[in-house]
Amino acid sequence: MKLFPIFADLKDRPVLVVGGGAVAERKTLALLEAHADVAVGAPELTPALADLLAAGRIRHLAGRFDPAWLDGAWLAVAATDDRGVNAAVSDAARARRIFSNVVDDPELSSFQVPSIVDRSPVIVAISSSGVAPVLARRLRERIESLFDHSLGRLAGLAERYRARIRAGHPDLGARRRFYDWLLDGPVAGLLRQQRPEAAQAALEAALAQPLAPAEGSVVLVGAGPGDPGLLTLKALRALNEADVILYDRLVSDDIMSLARRDAERISVGKLPGEDHHATQARIHALLVEHARLGRRVVRLKGGDAFIFGRGGEELEHLRAHGVRYEVVPGITAALACAAYPGIPLTHREHAQSVRLVTAHRTGYQDNLDRPGLPRRPPTPAFYKGVGQLDPPAPALAPHDPPAPPT
């Protein structure tokens, strides 16, 4: 992480903006939104800045930059078109240990101003560390479309009722479930409909009722081949709602970094040479144990849980013990491995079907039709074959293709 993200409280705190043009005007308006005490240092001001001065909303330090302007400032912004002046502001701020931003000049800046999605009090900030501001702006545009403008009012409502929610639900798990209801249920819907009074009444009614006991559940999530970009939105949502995550050895660190940070994480990966039956029995026991404690459990598997992932066995165990479950499919290895080099698994001129085969066997059971593997049209995709290549290898030896029909 190149920069440490921070949200600064600038209310009534002195901030210096050096420059009196259009860029300085934009920075000044943003700082005023944060209720900063803004002083603008410049020989002249734009009409809009002059209006702010006349209204008593800013102070004006007339003339060219003087390091004394930084006395008492919490941070500084250099927004002139003269790099020499901007460098002088940066040097003087650094000498005083004051964070400074030089607009569009990361080398001279000790902090960056991010692109903002404002749903106050909720604020989403996007930064490219100053190297690609256009990319940050594009990301902001996308994120803007994801969050309804009622999100700010919902956060404000949660803030006003925070003490009552905490008092009514002292247990952390119960309080988290109540917040989930608040964010996903009728209160949020009423706010989206511009009905704030009805939303507040619904929240009051919910606080007057005891919270139902938590019902645990398990979600089998396919993590895909390891690329976080191939994780489904539903899988990402499950990871962010999980209380407990049981994850396999092949699940990538990039995928795990997307999970809720305070979720309990339990590694249940199987290692070559160990008793896989005992490991699977432990997984079954953990799933039931945590679900019965009222927790939301994510069973995170590489690829897809139902393609040689023993997901079927785990669902059978959950069903036998009356545990509620859900399945979120993932992109299986055969699809991903073929897609990356651009190899189609099916092609109307070459292969009309796909055959998914595992080289891993249970005990001595082996029902694989090896002589039939090289025949067309199926495309064979082998799983778990690295340690057991010898048996299927002869069956995969090159064969002369059949002669074309005459």
UniProtKB/TrEMBL annotation:
It comes from Achromobacter ruhlandii. InterPro entries: 4pyrrol_Mease, 4pyrrol_Methylase_sf, 4pyrrole_Mease_sub1, 4pyrrole_Mease_sub2, CobA/CysG_C, NAD(P)-bd_dom_sf, Siro_Cobalamin_biosynth, Sirohaem_synt_dimer_dom_sf. SUPFAM superfamilies: NAD(P)-binding Rossmann-fold domains, Siroheme synthase middle domains-like, Tetrapyrrole methylase. GO terms for biological process: cobalamin biosynthetic process; methylation; siroheme biosynthetic process. One of its GO terms (molecular function) is precorrin-2 dehydrogenase activity. This is Uroporphyrinogen-III C-methyltransferase. Pfam families: CysG_dimeriser, NAD_binding_7, Sirohm_synth_M, TP_methylase. Its EC number is 2.1.1.107. The gene is cobA. Pathway: Porphyrin-containing compound metabolism; siroheme biosynthesis; precorrin-2 from uroporphyrinogen III: step 1/1; Porphyrin-containing compound metabolism; siroheme biosynthesis; sirohydrochlorin from precorrin-2: step 1/1. Residues 363-406 are annotated as: Disordered. Belongs to the precorrin methyltransferase family. It comes from the Bacteria. Signal peptide: none annotated. Keywords: Cobalamin biosynthesis, Lyase, Methyltransferase, Multifunctional enzyme, NAD, Oxidoreductase, Porphyrin biosynthesis, S-adenosyl-L-methionine, Transferase. The active site is at D248 (proton acceptor), K270 (proton donor).
